[in-house]
Amino acid sequence: MKTIQSLLQNKARLMLGYLLCIALALLFEASRLHLIYGIAFSFSSIFLLFAVSLFGVRLGVLAGVITQLFSFFFLHHPTFEWIGLLEIAGVGLLNRKKPGQLLVWDSIYWLLMGLPLMIVIYYGFYKFVSDELILMLLIALSNGLFNALIADILLKYLPLFHWFGLVKERERTYSYSKVLFHLSIMAVALPSLLYIVMNSWYSEKLSIQNSRQLAVNTANSINQELNQWGAEDILGIRLKGRIQVGYLQELVNKYTSEQLFRIVITDRSNKVLAADRQSYTLNQVYDWRGGNNIVGLDDNFYQVLPARESTALPAQQWREGSYIYDNAVARMPLHVYIDIPIRHYQISVFSQYLSQLWYLLLFAAAAAATALYLSRVLVHGLSKLATSTTDLPEKLKQMKEIEWPSSRVSEITSLTYNFRQMSLNLLSMFHQAQNMNQRLQEQTDKLRLSEEKLHQLAFYDILTGLPNRLYFTTYLQSMLAEAAHMPKQVAVMFADLNRFKQINDTLGHDIGDLLLKEIGERFTRSVTESCKLFRIGGDEFVIVIEDADDAKATAVAHSMFAAMEEPVRLMESTLYSSVSIGISMFPRDGDTMEAIVKNADMAMYFAKSMGSSNSYQFYEEELKIRFSEEMMIDNGIQEALANNQLVLHYQPKVDTASGAISGIEALVRWEHPELGRISPDKFIPLAERSGIIYKIDEWVLKEACRQNKAWQDEGLPKVPVAVNISALHFSQTNLLDMIHSALEESGLEESYLTLEITEGVFIENVEQVIGIISRIRERGIHISIDDFGTGYSSLNQLQRLPISHVKLDRSFIRDIGGEPKKAAVAKAIIELAHSMNMTVVAEGVETAEESDYFTQCRCDELQGYYFSRPLPALEFSRLLQRGNYAGLFAGGHTD
Length: 895
Hints:
By secondary structure, the protein is of the alpha/beta class.
């Protein structure tokens, strides 16, 4: 609404401004400044030039047409002045190409078109060239240039464009040279115009006075002669006597001057009695007032001009006009008219006026040239200084040479000096700024590199170059948000390297890092384009599959397994690695990112618990129940230690030769207040993952040593007690201290302690493990390899180890009678161990058949439910008191 009102207001101001220009043009056209004999000075073109400059050529020319029509039809000005309309059109067209040069364009118009056209029209009308034409040319040129100058000045220094809503007001600036030029020209033009006007008026007044004086003198001379006439002559005049009329004609002929004036004598009714024979006849009515414009100049002295509606040339009407003196003879019924043609004075005045005008114009031109020269002298230094200092900073930046002006004006010289000093200071500042900018650019480049590094650090893993956890979180959020609006699934696969911690701890972090880089590269090559691979920390990798299903996720898992088949050769080590993968599907297994990630992690946990080299597990609701149970167990182990929920049960080892109890194995049990008895198979792996296995093993070792010493103190048979030690202890440095502390506190002799270890301790850092075992063996403590035949020990390692006992795994015992190959392997192991002076224990014996077979194979000791289940300490003490299982053996060893 405000915009519409503003547009209407602007249009109203434009219309008002345009109408004002027309009104002022009409007003000044009607109020011309009359100079002499039809030649006038008009200021109407000032406002017509306003209209052209402000409102365009079309509207400006339209205003000129309206003004000329008004001048022609209402003011009856000469048609010759239509040349002014051409001036408006020509200047308007030139000014449209380069505005603000009205004086220049007007000068070009008059010199090239206006003046030549006036000459052609005048010559075509009179067929000769006179002073009148030259005067008309000079007055027209002066009038046009003066009006253009006034219009140019007013447009330059008055905010006309803003007043009429053509442009927005802004701070106006003026050229010093332009202002000085305008002041100089106006200082010459205004006095010159004033002189022209005053001289014109004076010349016309002088011509009128001379004409009247001539007419009065002539009339007085005629009156003097007529006063000498007698009564008869006067009567003859009344009767129009031929003699008296002849006398009157003689007087007319006597005083008439054809060059200056004519004499007409009439009676009271204005009938001609005597006159110039070429002009009037006898008794013709002398009607000098009819059809003429009469202006009374003095008593009985009149200016008579032909009453025409229009003329072609400005001075044409005056050329045909006259000054008439009407003298009524006192004693006679006569009127003596002195008719003085204006053209005679017009020619003389024009000639005299033209001479003066030439001098005036030459003086004005000289004065203007002098003023321009002085202004140029004054402005030249400033203009050159302004040119030199224009874009001075840019010139200094480009190391351009500055040309400083010289001037004889002290102020300009001082100003030039100040600018020069300022430029030197500015140049110095530029050099400093360039140095600072260069340093800033260097800092910016460093900052950009730092930002890139920060981005790389923030979103990418430094070691493998894969996207990291933050990137994974952002990416998965966007993927799930997109999948929520589309019927498609997203698979999240958590992959964890098996036994990486052992590799890292035994072979060192450098090897571990190299292994992670190699695995990352293999995974990158194995996944498809629809997969996005991340490393979120440690040995954990995540794969996000877009538009997934179970088959696609399974295929990706198998491709990752295939990537792990080739051994990894790092430096001098050759490693076989495997991976456990947990898979959850969005939205099937959860509708939030947290749920999907948690379920994939849970599935990976159970995949790892399968124990196979490469395994994967899809998330199922059943896993959540199992996981909750294991979490309860994991969280309760620490509490179990503090609240004495752990107890030891003991199972005997029976000597096959005598049937006597030859050893004891201490087995830990957990009596949970809510879950009841928890099997070691459930909580021991959890304890190993959490690290609390160290405290459990320490407690078991101390409790077993204490109990065995207590039985010995009670007089029961002295047999060694076997304690299972986690393989994790061999990556620590306090295992020997823990053993020493248990023996020291219990008082048990070293020979009555056996440490059972699994073959898993030999997977990494074999030399370190052998060194620790050797130091333990040197103290007289027995070492037994548990579950032999299922792990990683080799015959070469076996012969190097200071091992006391070898325990055959239950897998070799079960159904041995029905599997000849298994029986042959078991027998070979027994014979091999004996050849290396090791005793062999068969654990998990549950039937008489199994007992008989291993007895016949010369196995040294048997252990299992066939003899006794693991018993609490109190019950086991009674078993020790009995001390013999000889009745359970069918026979002795076979040779």
